[in-house]
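Q: Entry one of two.
A:
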Amino acid sequence: MLERIAMLSSRAFFLCTICLQAAVLAAQTPPPKAAPPKPDTLVLNDDERLIGHLVRSNGSSVVFKSDLLGEITVDWSKIKELHTSGRYAVVPKNVKLTRHGELGAIPRGSLNEAGQTITVGQPDGAPAKSIPVADTAQVLPESVFDKDVVHGPGLLQAWTGAVTAGATVVQATQESRAFTGAFNLVRAVPTETWLGPGNRTLVDFSASEGFVSQPNTPKVKTEIVHAHAERDQYFSGSRVYGFGQAIFDHNFSQGLDLQQNFGGGIGYTAIKQSDLTLDLKGSANFVRQTFAIPGVDHNLAGSTFAESLWRKFPRGMTLLQQFTVSPAWNELHAWMATASASLTVPVYDRLSFSIGLMENFLNDPAPGFKKNSFQGITGLTYSFK
């Protein structure tokens, strides 16, 4: 009996060893590589042939990434033929894309263009659809169409923004430290700008802190903190939007322990271009101010009027300028205003050098404090996208 058990154990051990060796070999064997996608072909009117990949089209021109020339933009009128192996969605003009409307009717498939007519190959043997180039609004990869148009980005997706940091250290008879930091995040849905605005979420935070000290002299402290969150919802087919916001400020230089500002109102995107955006806003607000000196706190009912300008210059430089004024209707002397401007200059990849100016004005600060505080901020900025 013991001999039989030993024999069975040895067989089982042998089989386990074989299985283990097979598993190790399978793990070491690389999986078969997927066949690379076939290239797309673009033929110009002079019969010059470009091999590469179709990026997208806005209805008047085509963005094509050539293996030889890189990414180029070509007018449809200069294209003789276009053939793709990948699948694309062709969005006709004057089509309102809604999830319960015409999304399912958008032609999808491989493309063949000749004679200023796009032929979309349909799956499952369905007949191909032909659309004149003049009647197309957008041509984009099917994966992009599904992600950005059909499904839309998730809550943690489609965020853009930047983080800025700077510091100054002095070590001598006087010692001083100054630290600044900021981040701003924007989530605009839909991400495809040709669809028109839907909603926008903005979150930003900035802090500036430092001190100066020397022997036999009290330490001088600086501390300014600002936080802001806003949600914009555009009215259908319009540049007008409703918004709600919450703003928190702490400014040691003005004796302001905490200012809480809650409100909502109407905004208007007066200019919306690829390199220029101008927003105008007006809101009703409740403001609670608590100061370092007791007995001078305020509860204010007022309004905020604001403008925000974003401008993109050649070589990737960007300018952001903002101005707000907030009258208080129950205490007219307690009005406020802020103004800021920042210039960002690309340095390398996503790193940039930034210069910023900010002015905060309180017409009714704590006794003994100035009405205004000015900041000049420089630092390195890292862009998320």
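Q: Entry two of two.
A:
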Amino acid sequence: MRFIDRDEELRFLKAYLETEPNAITFVYGPKSSGKSVLMKKVIEDLLKGGGFTAFYFDLRGRLISGYDGIVDMLFADEGVSETREVEKGLEFGIFSYFRVRKTVREEIRNRKVDPFYLMEEALRKAEGKKLIVFDELQRLKNVYLNSPVNQKSLIEELFNFFVRLTKVEHLSHVFALSSDTFFIEEIYANSSLSESSEYYLVDDPPEEIVKTYLLEEGFSTEEIECVLDGIGPLLWAVNQIVVKKRAGVSVEESVSSLIDDAYSKILTFLSGLEVRGSIRDEYIRLLKKLLEGPAKVVPFDEDMRKYKELADAEIVFYDPLKGEVRIRSRAKLHAIRRLIKEMGIDGA
């Protein structure tokens, strides 16, 4: 995804990383809102100035089912080729693991050495200001460190370690990126972290920024209006339209295709509800209510489970700090209106 000018977020995050670490920072927002791209840009800019060390762990596509998987994610042998430093498009200088001797790595695997101790020692030796980023941290929430009989949550141990690095030792900033806002809500409600964490929302950019981007890509005024009216400032979709336009596909066709895709995904979700024993009309009722305004405050009642399922399906976005839910994108809004109209429900 191309980086689109987000000066306000860049200024804030770079200034924040220049301060003394004092809290875990949760960067949250809708899927595909640009959290990872923004964070990598912040790090790359800081690295150019020198005196900065960053460790970035991207949990997408990783199968981590236990302790050995955690060790493999965090540590690599010193003898491993440095070409492995470049992962997921990260620039050289952003480390994707901690380097240790092979014998030490085996000791970690055999639980003879505390991995958190080694990570802390590595951070103390690193130059300048430090940052650890865990991207899509919620993927570790069901991972345990011990046997099924005496389970110990990895997330719980990580948070204890993060608090030590930030609030206690002021050694390194720790950023946890997540699009699972119900996971963020669990953290937000956790009293043990209430005075040890900060929260920063990365939402879709303002439409004016997307408009400027499309103008730079040679879009006409009519084409820009078509994109914003049909899709809105959803970055991954906007980039898809740009790429397809270069390949000769009309903007109108691309926008229509994305709305059709949103419609299909919502229909598939609703069709699967009966298989899971849920009543489809209850979910349609919730979606219909969301058509009445940009966001709704969500009461803590029996509808929360339904909202979570809708959020997991990327149909809605839930902001846990505001307690608000909204339809995820303009394409899905159009798709929901079409669906309700076709089903003959009044008020669509």
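A: Comment on entry two: The CA atoms of residues 144 and 154 lie 5 Å apart. The two ends are 34 Å apart (CA to CA).
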